[in-house]
Amino acid sequence: MTKDTISKAFQLSPISAFFLTFSLQLGSDFLKLPQPLIDQAGQDAWIGVLISGFATMGILWFIFRLLDHEKPYGRTDIFSIHRRLFGKKAGDVLNFILMGQVLLFLVCLLCTYSEIFQVWLFPNLSTLEFSIIICIITGYVVLGGIRNIGGLSFLYFLYMIPIFQSLNFTVPYLRFSNLLPVFDHSLSAIMEASYMGAKLYLGFELVIFYYPFFGQPDRARKWAYLGVLTSMILYLNLTIVGTAFATQGALTRTIWPFMALLKTLQIPFFNHAEKLATLFFVWSLIPDVCVCTWILTRGLNFSFPSMKQKYFMIAVLILSVLLTCSLQTGNQIRMINQLFGLTGTAIVYIYLPLLFLYQWFHKKVREQHEN
Amino acid sequence: MKIKVFFLLMLIPLLSGCLPTSTLDQVLMVEGEGFDYLGNGKIMGTVVIPSFEQGASQNGQGGGMQSISSTIRSLSGVTYDGKSLADKFQSEGQEILRVGSMKTMIYDKKLAKFGLKNQLSFRNRDPDVPSAISIAVVDGSTKELLTATDYQTKVPIARYIQHMILQNTQQNYPSTNLRYFLDSYYGAYMDPFMPLIKKSGDHLEMQGLALFRNDKYIMSIPDSKMFVFKMLYEPFNQGFYDCLLPSGKHIVVRNVESSVKYKVEDGNGVSPKVVASLQIKGYVRQASPKTVSTKAASTVSKKVADDLKHNAEKMVRQLQRKGVDPLRIGDTVRSATRHFDGKTWNERYPNTNFSCQIHVEVIQTGISS
C-alpha cells in the first residue's frame, strides 16, 4: 500500500463529486424549508437561501485551494494537512475534533429520520430497531468502499427526481402575493436568515476527507460546484413554493412544511403522497450515513494504522446506534440539530479559512528559511 | 462467502418487521365526521363508514339471497369538543377504525358559532387525515344529515357531500377544503370560510358560504351572490351569473375567463384605497326575450358590468361592517405596502375605501338571434 496515491481501483469518477455533494447537502433540513428562515426574513426567505448558496460556493473554492496547495507535500486530505502543519499529536487532536463533528452529523441524521418515520409512518417503530437496520445496510455498503457510496448517491439523485416533481402539483395552491413586498426586511434580518440558510448547505465540506479519491480532481471540482448549484436551485424552489403555498402564520406552526405540502396534494393513485415520500427519504439518509461512517473509519485508521478498518467500522456503527438511542424526545433532536448547525458553520466559515491562511503562512516562512 | 449469504438471508425476517398491519377488509375506513354542539363544551359526534351491500344485484336478481351490508354504517355519541372521534368510537367499532381516507368533515351552525378552535388545532396536528378534505357548515343537524337513509342516491354520504362541494368549486364556489381553511385561519389579515350545506328532503343542497372571524361563524353569503364573491377572490371560469335588469328581466352570463387585479394606494393611511379591476369574458347562456341582440352586445355587457359592480361593492361594504375579511383584502394591502402597519389594520379595515372597475366582454350570444 503506497502512502500518497490511491490505486485506480478505489478512485472515484469526477461526476461522483456532483452526486456526493448533492446528497450530503440534502441531509434532512430541506424538509423544513422555508420554516428556519421565516422567523427572520418572512417572505424574503428566498434571498437568504440565495446569499448563503453563493457563500457556500465561495467557501468551496477556498477548500479546494487549501487541498490543492497540499499536493506537493503528500495526500490531499484534511488528516494529512493537520498532521503536517501541527505535528502528530496536535494534528491528531484536531482530526478527532473534526471527526466528532462528522459523528454529530451522523447522529443528527439518524435521529431526525427516525423521528420523521415515527411521526409520519410507524408510530411504534423504535429508534433502536430503525437505527440498527440502517446501520446494517450502511456497514454492508461501507465494506464495499467509497465507490459503492458514490454509486448510492447517484441512485439517490435518480430517486429524488419524482419526489421533487411532485412540486408541480402545488400549482393550483400557490399565491405569489405571499412573496410580496420583496426586500421588506432590513439587511441585518436578511443576513440572519442567510446564517440559518448556511446550515442547510452543510455537508459539502466533507469533501476535505475524500478529495484524494478523485482520479481527476480538476474535473471533480467543477462537478462539485455544480452540485452546490443544483441544491441551491432546489432549495430556492422549495423556499419559493413553500412561501407561496402557505401563509406565514400557517408556516410558523408547521414543523415539516414540505411534508405538509405533500400531505395536501392529491396525486392520482397516491392519496397519501407523504407516506410514500417518507419511504423514499431513506435514500437521502443512507448515502449520507455511509459517507460519515466511511470518514470516521478512515480517520480512526489514520490515527491507529495497526488495526483493521473493519473493526473500526463496527465500533463506529455501534457508537452511533447508542448515541441515537440516547436521544429520544423531539426537543433533544432539535437541540442536537442546532448544535450541529452551529459547530458546522463555525468549522466551515471560520476554521477552514483560518487553516487556509495558516497553510499559506507556513509555506511563506518555509520559503524564507530556504532562501 | 456462504456464511455471508446466510447472514444476509437471516436479515430478511428483520426487514419484514413486526409493525401492525391494516388489511383493507379488516378495518373500518371512516369517511366522514359530523359534529353537533350540545353546549358546555360537549358535542354529539357522528362518524360514517361506507357500507357496501353484498348479495343482491342491481336488477334485484340476487339469486334469492337477501342483500346484506357487511359493515356498520355509522356511530354517534356524546364527547367533549376536540376529541378524536375515531378514538372515541374504537370501543364500538366492529373492526379497527382508521381515518386515513377521510373525505368530509361537517359542523353544525351552533358549533361554528361557538368556535372551531379545538377541532382545528386537533386536525392540524393529525398526520393521518389528508389536508385536502372537504369541510362544510350544516344548516341543521349533522347527525341527521349523515345518518338519514332517505337519500335518492346509495353513494356513501361522505362521498356525496365531497362530490357536491367539488363540482360546485369548479363553478361558482371558491376553492375550499381543510387546508385552505387552516391557511387563512392561521394567516394574518384574512379570515377563513367554508360552504354552507343543507339537507332538503331527499337530497343535499349548497346554500352559500359561511364566513368566519378567526374560528367563529359570523355571517353567510347566499348562493345567488357566489359569482360576485368568487370573481373577487380568485381567477376562474365556468361560473354563471344571473343578472336581474331593472326592467325585471334576466340575463344569464357564463364566464369563460375572469381575472382580478388589485391596486392599493395609501396602504398605511387611515383609509387605504383598494381598487379591484376585473376582466370578465363570457357568453350569454339565457336571456329574456328582447334583451339581447347581436348588434347590441356591448350595451348588454355594460348592463351586466354595472350590476356586478353594484353588487360587489355592496358585498364588500357588508363584509367591512361585520369586520370579516374572507376576500383577503388585508393581505392584499400588506403585499402591496412596504413596512405594512399590521397592528392597526383591524381598525382601518372598516374604513378601507373599496371600489371596482369591471370590464365585461360578451363573446357570443348563442345560436339564435
Automatic annotation (TrEMBL), chain A:
<dbReference type="InterPro" id="IPR004761">
    <property type="entry name" value="Spore_GerAB"/>
</dbReference>
<keyword id="KW-0813">Transport</keyword>
<feature type="transmembrane region" description="Helical">
    <location>
        <begin position="93"/>
        <end position="116"/>
    </location>
</feature>
<feature type="transmembrane region" description="Helical">
    <location>
        <begin position="339"/>
        <end position="361"/>
    </location>
</feature>
<feature type="transmembrane region" description="Helical">
    <location>
        <begin position="12"/>
        <end position="33"/>
    </location>
</feature>
<dbReference type="Pfam" id="PF03845">
    <property type="entry name" value="Spore_permease"/>
</dbReference>
<feature type="transmembrane region" description="Helical">
    <location>
        <begin position="223"/>
        <end position="245"/>
    </location>
</feature>
<comment type="similarity">
    <text>Belongs to the amino acid-polyamine-organocation (APC) superfamily. Spore germination protein (SGP) (TC 2.A.3.9) family.</text>
</comment>
<feature type="transmembrane region" description="Helical">
    <location>
        <begin position="128"/>
        <end position="146"/>
    </location>
</feature>
<feature type="transmembrane region" description="Helical">
    <location>
        <begin position="276"/>
        <end position="297"/>
    </location>
</feature>
<protein>
    <submittedName>
        <fullName>Spore germination protein</fullName>
    </submittedName>
</protein>
<feature type="transmembrane region" description="Helical">
    <location>
        <begin position="45"/>
        <end position="67"/>
    </location>
</feature>
<feature type="transmembrane region" description="Helical">
    <location>
        <begin position="309"/>
        <end position="327"/>
    </location>
</feature>
<keyword id="KW-1133">Transmembrane helix</keyword>
<keyword id="KW-0472">Membrane</keyword>
<feature type="transmembrane region" description="Helical">
    <location>
        <begin position="153"/>
        <end position="173"/>
    </location>
</feature>
<keyword id="KW-0309">Germination</keyword>
<keyword id="KW-0812">Transmembrane</keyword>
<feature type="transmembrane region" description="Helical">
    <location>
        <begin position="193"/>
        <end position="211"/>
    </location>
</feature>
Automatic annotation (TrEMBL), chain B:
<keyword id="KW-0732">Signal</keyword>
<dbReference type="InterPro" id="IPR057336">
    <property type="entry name" value="GerAC_N"/>
</dbReference>
<keyword id="KW-0564">Palmitate</keyword>
<dbReference type="InterPro" id="IPR046953">
    <property type="entry name" value="Spore_GerAC-like_C"/>
</dbReference>
<comment type="similarity">
    <text>Belongs to the GerABKC lipoprotein family.</text>
</comment>
<keyword id="KW-0449">Lipoprotein</keyword>
<keyword id="KW-0309">Germination</keyword>
<keyword id="KW-0472">Membrane</keyword>
<feature type="domain" description="Spore germination protein N-terminal">
    <location>
        <begin position="24"/>
        <end position="198"/>
    </location>
</feature>
<dbReference type="InterPro" id="IPR008844">
    <property type="entry name" value="Spore_GerAC-like"/>
</dbReference>
<feature type="signal peptide">
    <location>
        <begin position="1"/>
        <end position="17"/>
    </location>
</feature>
<feature type="domain" description="Spore germination GerAC-like C-terminal">
    <location>
        <begin position="207"/>
        <end position="366"/>
    </location>
</feature>
<dbReference type="Pfam" id="PF05504">
    <property type="entry name" value="Spore_GerAC"/>
</dbReference>
<dbReference type="Pfam" id="PF25198">
    <property type="entry name" value="Spore_GerAC_N"/>
</dbReference>
<dbReference type="InterPro" id="IPR038501">
    <property type="entry name" value="Spore_GerAC_C_sf"/>
</dbReference>
<protein>
    <submittedName>
        <fullName>Ger(X)C family spore germination protein</fullName>
    </submittedName>
</protein>
